[in-house]
Amino acid sequence: MDLVRPAGTPVDRPGLDGVVERRFGLVVMGDVRIEVRAALPEVRFTELTADRLTYAPARIMVAGTAVNLARRATGYFRRIAVTGKIGDDDFTPLIRRELRRLGVRDLLRAEPGAANAVSVMLRDRATADGPGVRLLVAEEHAPSRRLTEADVRRAAGEIRRADVLFTDGYSLLSPISAAALRRAAAIARRAGTLVAFDVVPHDVDARLPAAEVTPVLELADIVITEAATVARLLGRPAPVEGGEVRELLPALDALVPGRPLWLLRFGPGCLERVLAHQRGRLELEYATGYGEGVERAGFGDRLTAGELYWWLSARSG
């Protein structure tokens, strides 16, 4: 994807709150699960030395990487579809109902007899140093890990019609879903649909060798990553400042042939700034607006949705 640098930044315009005129088609492939979230205003994890009962606001919601992004993308994209594999239990109608509520096309495959995956997100008490520590407990053997190439082929028509296919690194944690990811990317590339890849989990370097991640980077037109994550994949220290991030660029260009657009997130919280880089064509650094007092949950998805819309607009003129 060759680009000419647009004026401004995606945070200036369209911004992180959606647009008046939605455009483009997006297919999101990823994890779908039920999540319980709670913030613990009276508890610090480091203070716990015994069992503890605490009362705090808690909610249950349909989440997972695919739904979380699709929910934010509805403010930008005219057509959105979610593809993946879910379970077949009492939560399944809830998941499908949420996609209908969002106006998102449901391309999910239900695995007969399988339970839907559940995750629990807890955030402890904020301090003067930050918003508190997040503990995310995720069921490992989720149905999404068993998404097959045959499942992806059933969504091929929607992928071909889309402007961008969005995928993420959780699919790489299973050989079955990893093959499905590669198949989806191949379908997209043959059709001229852009492929965006989010390098998660953020500790993917501790879970997979770089040799298993790099082939997927080679299929991507847009790579979204914390600079610290990709630095560790390269065996380098995690950068914090913009100058340190720029020192990564030659290594990234050597790592992946072609000219993907890298969106490298960095800063004290790994989310305050972005360095956009495409070999030989553009380099752009901008602030995201994230900082003290800004809710972190969902911010990355808001940023990603706005960025995808902005870069697609730049590509189409």
UniProtKB/TrEMBL annotation:
InterPro entries: PfkB_dom, Ribokinase-like. It holds the Pfam family PfkB. The keyword Kinase applies. This is Sugar/nucleoside kinase (Ribokinase family). It comes from Actinomadura namibiensis. It comes from the Bacteria. Residues 62-253 form the Carbohydrate kinase PfkB domain. One of its GO terms (molecular function) is kinase activity. Transmembrane segments: none annotated. Keywords: Kinase, Transferase. SUPFAM superfamilies: Ribokinase-like (SSF53613). The keyword Transferase applies.
